[in-house]
Amino acid sequence: MSESAAITLGLAAMEAKTNADLLLASLRAVLPFAESRAEGMDCCADENEGVAMAFPESEEAARTAASARAAADKAIAAVDAAKALLASLDG
Question: Is 27 in contact with 86 (CB distance < 8 Å)?
Answer without folding.
Answer: yes
